[in-house]
Write a structure and sequence with these properties.
Length: 146
């Protein structure tokens, strides 16, 4: 009878400790979640206090500096959020590298085309200038003959 009572006691203790562990994890999660909300609330409060300390003209200047228009409506503005490159996933980093390589190739192709156009126009200009010099020389030779 004593062994059965000890076994029941151990099962109850195990259940109580497991329940306590779950309660502690839940409490920790709630604290962390509340801290994130609190951080956002405090950040909004600081922004509000800063905006209230500025004149309307200075506030508009600051708004235009840290926000940009949303969609086609130029009166609606949104906060510009920048992400650090460290927070990119491997897939995003690979996509960015591919986009960078593609843009670099497009720029290189564009610059080659521009260089080709410039050299063509310069050679055309030089050829036209050479022809005009020959015409002037031929004209001056005819005047000498007469």
């Amino acid at each position: 009878m004593g062994k059965i009572m000890f076994l029941v006691y151990m099962v109850l203790v195990f259940c109580m400790q497991f329940n306590l562990l779950i309660a502690m994890l839940t409490r920790t999660y709630e604290i962390i979640y509340g801290t994130q909300k609190e951080y956002k609330r405090q950040w909004a409060q600081v922004i509000l206090l800063l905006e209230l300390s500025l004149s309307p003209r200075e506030r508009l200047t600051a708004l235009l500096k840290y926000s940009r228009p949303v969609g086609t409506n130029k009166k609606k503005r949104a906060f510009i959020a920048t992400r650090k490159n460290d927070s990119l996933t491997d897939t995003e980093r690979l996509i960015r590298e591919q986009q960078f390589v593609q843009q670099r190739e497009e720029k290189r192709t564009f610059l080659k085309r521009r260089l080709k156009d410039i050299t063509y126009s310069m050679s055309k200009y030089a050829h036209a200038k050479k022809n005009s010099n020959e015409t002037i020389q031929i004209g001056s030779e005819k005047e000498k003959d007469e």
